[in-house]
Write a structure and sequence with these properties.
9 strands, 18% strand, 5-stranded mixed beta sheet, globular
C-alpha cells in the first residue's frame, strides 16, 4: 500500500484512529496490536486505546489477534475483534452487535454481522472462547474457532456495507475512497 494501513485516511481520520473512536464508544479497553512499523504508527494514535506490540508480526495476522486476546481483562464478559483494514464500520452497527451480545441466549457464543447474506466484522465473542483462540498455532485463523460454533452463533442483519469492507490493496482503497466505481 506504500504506507501502513493503520495510517491510511478514511473520512478525515486514519483507519486505526477511526476504529479506536468507533469501537471505543462501546468497549473499554480498546486494545490495538501494532506490529510492522509500530514506531511509525504509534505516535499517530490516541483516543485512549491500549497499545500492545506483536514482537514477531511475520507469524501472521492471527498472531496479532492472539496478542490482543491475551490482554483482555479478566472481568470482560466478551470481546470484539476486527482487522484494521475494515475502517468503514458505523457506530450504530457496533452498538447493535453489542446490544445483541448482551441480550443473547447464553448458549450463543458469537454475534456476527451480516450484510446481504455475507458475514463480516466486527465479531463479538464470549469470554469462554479465549482459551480456544489462544491455544491455536499462530498460523491458525479466527475462522478455525468460529466455524466450530456455527450452531451457537447469532447472525445479525445490518444495513452497513462497512462490515464487508476489506482494504487489501490500492484498488480496494480507491473504491473505499470513492475514486473508483
Amino acid at each position: 500500500m506504500g504506507s501502513p494501513k493503520a495510517l491510511l485516511d478514511y473520512r478525515g481520520e486514519t483507519f486505526a484512529g477511526r476504529l479506536i473512536r468507533v469501537v471505543g464508544g462501546f468497549c473499554d479497553p480498546v486494545i490495538v496490536v501494532l506490529g510492522h512499523q509500530h514506531e511509525i504508527i504509534r505516535p499517530h494514535l490516541d483516543g485512549g486505546a491500549r497499545m500492545v506490540i506483536n514482537p514477531d508480526p511475520e507469524r501472521g495476522q492471527f498472531s496479532s489477534l492472539q496478542i490482543a486476546l491475551a490482554a483482555v481483562p479478566a472481568e470482560a464478559e466478551g470481546f470484539l475483534f476486527l482487522p484494521v483494514d475494515c475502517p468503514a464500520i458505523e457506530p450504530e452497527t457496533v452498538a447493535l452487535l453489542i446490544e445483541t451480545f448482551a441480550h443473547r441466549d447464553q448458549s450463543s457464543v458469537f454475534v456476527i454481522p451480516c450484510y446481504h447474506g455475507k458475514h463480516g466484522h466486527p465479531v463479538c465473542a464470549a469470554r469462554e472462547l479465549l482459551p480456544e483462540f489462544l491455544s491455536l498455532p499462530a498460523t491458525g485463523q479466527a475462522r478455525d474457532v468460529v466455524h466450530r460454533y456455527v450452531d451457537r452463533t447469532r447472525y445479525v442483519d445490518v444495513g452497513d456495507a462497512g462490515v464487508l469492507t476489506d482494504v487489501d490493496d490500492a484498488e480496494a482503497y480507491q473504491r473505499l475512497a470513492g475514486r473508483v466505481q
